[in-house]
Amino acid sequence: MIDDFVIARNPEEESTLPYLVRIPVGPFGIVLKVRDTWPRTAKVYCHPAVDWPSDPQVIERVPVRSCARRGAAIDLVLDRGRENRSQFVFTKARGREMIFWQSARTAKQARPNVAVPTQRASGHTLEIMVDSHERYPWRFSAQQATTVRRALTAGDYGVEVDGQLIASVERKSLADLVGTLTGGKLRYLLAALADIPRSALVVEDRYSGVFKLDRVRPAIVAEGLAEAQVRFPEVPIVFCETRPLAQEWTYRFLGAALDHHLTDDPAGLLTDSLPAASPLAPAPPTTAEIRAWAREQGLEVADKGRLRPEVLAAFNASR
Predict the structure, then answer these.
(1) Which of 46, 71, 187, 288 is the most exposed place for a label (fewest CB within 10 A)?
(2) In CATH, which superfamily holds the domain spanning 287-318?
(3) Quick one: pLDDT band at residue 47, thresholds 50, 70, 90?
């Protein structure tokens, strides 16, 4: 069971970050100093804290639906109707590591009218590895990229960092995809791609083309693709309509994967270096829970209002 997300007062009175948050990620959770209790109008600056105080002044304690680290970010979803989705982003700025707490609203405000890149993929001039077994390879002549032929462990096109294949894309025509699927080879192909940190399978056709097949039942292909995608969710199967569009998508995917490896992955190591939080004390009982306990013990309590001191004393003595 996931611990609650807790916000408390920072006991360091001279700190410019007046609050502490305890994030239930990892085996013990982590503690950050923060400037505000929620990123309502702007990103909230955060800083690692030494530990969770033994007797915190809790401001808010909220149950958590999910809390997961994804690359250089921690995605947090709280179990409440409003202000329930946010993200802690670990990055580098001005030569030092920084942490920001943001919501969808503040992230959108931070980059209004962002332009889609039309030239270099994620700001990089790519050197794309082309598998030596690829018979009619893409040349990427319209993109800012060079190609090198060599044998790849998986996929037809990839990018390397320090000799390690960090992203790969398998290219298929629709006919080739159908043959691989019906021949029972697609599962093994996707399994090999899944071993690469980031990978995809790109089809040079529309998905609607599946339902125009005449040599194999379209339902068999559609079911097989769905099953393969469920079995290997880390390897997306992307239909890109035409060969040029499939090439363009692959170029952008490899560029984004390279940029993620060079920026987000090193920044994500910061989360591993943060000190683990001390165990979180159980949540205090609610008035409804105390009232239910009192009735089980035969004590008279009102349906509403504050509980009598003797009822609270009896409850505390029973714990």
Answers:
(1) 288
(2) E3-binding domain (4.10.320.10)
(3) very high
